[in-house]
Fold this sequence. Notes:
Strand order of the largest sheet of chain B: 6-7-8-3-9-10
Structural class of chain A: mainly alpha
Number of helices of chain B: 12
Largest sheet of chain B: 6 strands, mixed
Radius of gyration of chain B: 18 Å
Distance between the termini of chain B: 45 Å
Number of domains of chain A: 3
Shape of chain A: flat
Number of strands of chain B: 10
Distance between the termini of chain A: 59 Å
Helix content of chain B: 25-40%
Oligomer: heterodimer
CATH superfamily of the largest domain in chain A: MetI-like
Number of domains of chain B: 1
Number of strands of chain A: 2
CATH architecture of the largest domain in chain A: Orthogonal Bundle
CATH topology of the largest domain in chain A: MetI-like fold
Amino acid sequence: MREEQVVEISGETRPRTFAGDRTTGKSRHALILQGDTRFRFRKAISGLMAAIVAACTVFGVAILWIILGYVLVRGLPALDLAFFTERPMPYGEVGGGVAPAILGSLYLIAVACAIGLPLAVMTAIYLSEYAHGRFGDAVRFVIDLLAGLPSIVVGVFVWTLIVINTGSFSGLAGAVALAIIMIPIVARTVEAILNLVPNSMREASLALGVPTWKTIIRVVLPAAKSGIITGVVLAMARAGGETAPLLMTTLGNQFFNFDLMQPMAALPVQIYNYAVAPYADWHTKAWGSALVLITLIGLLSLLTRWAVRSQKLVES
Amino acid sequence: MSQQTIEQTTTEAGDSPAAGMEVRNLSAYYGNFLAVKDVSMPIERGKVTALIGPSGCGKSTFIRCLNRLHELNRGARVTGQALLEDQDIYASNVDPVQVRRVIGMVFQKPNPFPMMSIYDNVVAGIKLNNARKSRSELDEIVERSLQGAALWDEVKDKLDHSGASLSGGQQQRLCIARTIAVEPEVVLMDEPCSALDPIATFKIEELIAELKERYTIALVTHNMQQAARVSDYTAFLLSGEERYGRLVEYGPTEQIFTRPQEAETEAYITGKFG
C-alpha cells in the first residue's frame, strides 16, 4: 500500500520507493516531475546562453547593416545618370562617371570565369570522381593553400608572368589574376557538392549501361546544379571585390576600353583611386562606386538564390 | 568484336525469352580482402534464381559481379568467369558498359533520378545513351515498360511529375520499368523489397513472376519466404569462420527448402542461425 512506501526526502537523491510527501500533500509523481532548484538553475542558464547567442548574431549582423547603411548614405549623392554613363573626368574636374569601371568589372569577371570555371569544375570532377589516392590528397592540399594565398601575391605573380612579358598592363592579366583567385574556391565547393550526390544515383546510371563520363555529365552534374551555381557565384563575388591584384595587372583606365591587351578600368581600382585622391567630389564618387559594387554582388546572389529556388521547385 | 557478340545475343533472343548465365570459379576481392570465393553456378534462362544467406555472406557482392558493377568500387577486382550464353563478360575484350546494357540491375533502395520526370526516368537509359528515337517510339517504350512494371495505371496521368514524388514501392517499380526499358537479357535484383512495406513487397513479387516470362532474373534476398515464393532455383551462400563468402548449396528451390543436401543449409533454413 501507498502508506507503507512513504520515505523521508533527504538531500538530492530520492529512493525509488518514494511515494509522496505527507507534509506538503504532494504526490510521488508531482515531486519527481516538478523538479528542484537545480532544474530552475539549468533553465536559467539555458535562457542566458540563448540570449548571448542571439546577441552575438544581432551584433554581427548589425555591423554589416551599419556598413551598408553608411555606404548608402555616403554613396547615394554620387548616383545620377552621368555616374552610370560617363567616363571619369580628369584630375580636379567635377562631374563624370564610372561607366568604364562598371563595364570593366563585369567584363573582367566574365573573362575570369571563362578562363577559371572550366579548369575549376574539371578539377572538382577529377577530385570527386577519380582521385582517391595520395595524389588526390596532395591536390586538395595544394588547392587549399592556393585558396589561402594573399591576393597581392597572385597580383605580383601575374604581373611577373604577363605584364612583364607582354610589356603592358592589361585586362587579360587582371582576368587571369581573378581566375587564379576563383579556381580554388570553385574547385573545392564543387567537389564538396559532387561528393554529396549519392552513389546510388551514379550506380543507377551505370547499371543502365551509361558510360562513366556520360554519367558524370548527364546525371551527377545536373543533380549538383544548384550547389555548383552557388559555388560559382561565391567565387564571382570574391573576385569582383578584389583590388590588390588588379592594381598590379589591369592598372585601371579613365577611358572606355574593351581591348583585353590594354589597361582596363575596374570598380575596386576606381574606388581605390578616388579614395586616395584629394578631391571631395572624388570621395563621394568612391562611395558611390562602392555602393554600385555591393549592389552588383548582392544582385548576383539574389539571382542565384532565385535560380536555385526555382530549380528546387521543379525537383519536388 | 566482343560488342558484336553481345549485341548478336540480344537480337537473336528476340523470340526466345532472355539468355542464361553460367558462373565459373568466380571470386571477388575488395583490395586484398577476399569477399566471395570460388562460386560456380548457373543462372537459368527465363527462371528466377534466388541468392540467400545471412548478412555479410557476400551475396550482394556476388550479384554485383554479374554485371561488372563490383569492379567500380575502389580496389575491387574479380577473378573467374561469368558467361552470358557463350560469352565471358570478363573477357579482356568485353566492354563493361555493354555488359551493363544487357544485364540490368535493380537496387536495394529505390533510386529513381530525382531531377527527372517519371517519363524521363523510364527512358533514362535510352536518352543518356543518345539513342535516336522519335517521340512516338519513346512514348511506346514508356507505356510498355511501365505496364511491364505494373505501374502504368497508377502514373499514366502524371508522367511529367518527378520520380521522387512516388511512394517507395512505386519508385521501385519505376526503377524496374527503367531497367526493362533498355530491354536487357538478365535483370539482377539486389534485395529489391527490403525497403518496402508488405503490400509493396507483394506487388514486386507478383511482378517478378511476370518478368521471368521475358527475362532471366537473379534475386538477392535475406527473406527466405520470399525466395521460396518467387524463385525456381536457390543458391545458399555463407561466410563462416573463414570470413569470405562461399556457395554452400545450389539447387531447385523446392529441393533446397525441403531436402537440403548440406547440414549448413538445413540449419539456416530451419532458423538455427542467421
